[in-house]
Design brief:
Family: Belongs to the intradiol ring-cleavage dioxygenase family.
Pfam family, one: Dioxygenase_C
CATH architecture of the largest domain: Sandwich
Cofactor: Fe(3+)
Largest sheet: 6 strands, mixed
Radius of gyration: 24 Å
Shape: elongated
Distance between the termini: 33 Å
CATH topology of the largest domain: Protocatechuate 3,4-Dioxygenase, subunit A
Number of strands: 13
GO molecular function: catechol 1,2-dioxygenase activity; ferric iron binding
CATH superfamily of the largest domain: Aromatic compound dioxygenase
Keywords: Dioxygenase, Iron, Metal-binding, Oxidoreductase
CATH class of the largest domain: Mainly Beta
Helix content: 25-40%
Number of domains: 2
Strand content: 15-25%
Number of helices: 8
Amino acid sequence: MSQPTTKADNIDTSKIPDVTNLTASTITESVHLINSSCPNERSKFIFKSLVQHLHDFVRETNLTTEEWMTAIHFLTDTGKKSSDLRQEFILLSDTLGVSTLIDILNNAKPPGATEATVLGPFFTEDAHDVPSGESIASEGKGDYLYVHGRVTDTKGNGVPGAVIETWETDGHGLYDNQYPNRDGPECRGRILVKPDGNYSYRAVVPVPYPIPGDGPVGKMINHLNRHIYRPAHLHAMIKAEGFETLTTALYVNGDKFLGSDAVFGVKTSLAVDLKQVDDVKVTKARGFPRAIPHKELHFDFIMATPEEGAIARQKLSSTWSKA
């Protein structure tokens, strides 16, 4: 947004609506009038709706000054808790279901395509490139997991040149950027799929974990008498020329928190089974250092083109507008 004019002499107040002597029933319309000169029609529409709903909320709840100040301090603390490696505001959006709602409305997919889900607050930009078949995790970070499958279009054709960026917790339920002594990416990597769309990499078995409970969002969750756990999952962001970026995650069936994810990210189509592989020869053949049993996860990611995505979102928007 452009900076507002700050010199008082440059402001022509004769064209600004009079907003004095306001009442609880007239202030909302006065704010709409003051904001109506915004030259950006989309911004004007968004702020009008925001003000309307916010004012209606205050009237509906008969909000007290103390309650509003509590909300202001809460948001201030949320900002202070955020950093380059931790985004408390994303966590707030996630735990209120806003991130999932926005994701549903903006990332509708055509039938058969892999569904999207929330990015989460632990994505970083510094993942290493990992050759297909290699490991995203150092030895000792958790139980062995072999992940493989294909990246295809909605017609079943492989998507050459696709890049899978993946990240997960270690076996202790912590992302690398939750450790204070982090010196580089761990349990995350970028995998270039093969020309036929096949991909594979070594990882660790994901485990359920609590979202950060030491900040304002954690205090809010506790106040609402909710648990702070996410079910075990493996994140994936897939990019390919000519296709919409797919941000998704795979959730492990049988996890006790699968039906009550603290950030509302689980979708049935993204729930997967982990296969037990007891043949240690297969473990060694897949490149794991120790000859022990491991888990296997097979999943085919199906990507949509921008045209297919646009049609799906148009259909969703039409359905939503009629509801």
